[in-house]
Structures are given as structure tokens and as C-alpha cells.
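Problem 12. The chain below contains 67 residues. Write out its predicted structure in C-alpha cell notation.
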Amino acid sequence: MKSREELYKAAASSQRVIVKLHNGEVINGFAEVSTDLERAKIRTSEGPTWIPYADIEDIERIAQMLH
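Solution.
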């Protein structure tokens, strides 16, 4: 599944992600590695959020550029 792979890459690189859901909601935070096969774990400013992979429409990874 593409969503799972993208979030795993983001977690491995400590990248910020923007997750867009099918219902129009947008979640910003940092992906964390999860052992749950059905849900992604995103650390937001409000705390950890669990999102079913089936609800994810799109994922954007934000790469930090070093100067």
C-alpha cells in the first residue's frame, strides 16, 4: 500500500507530513512507525492521532532543506 510506504519513509527520515483524508480533513504532523497494520500514527501538536489507512486519500512529505 502506497500510504503505508510513504509514511514509513517519512518516519524513518523524521519528516513532517500532511495527510489528506477522503472526508476532506487535513492532518499535519510527524509520522511515527506503527505496529498496527490497519492504522497510521501521526504525532500532531495535540498528541498522537491514529488514522485508518483506508481513510487516507493523499500524503505529502515535507523535506527539510539544510543551509
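Discussion. The chain has a mean pLDDT of 92. Students who got a different answer should revisit the alignment rule from Section 12.3.
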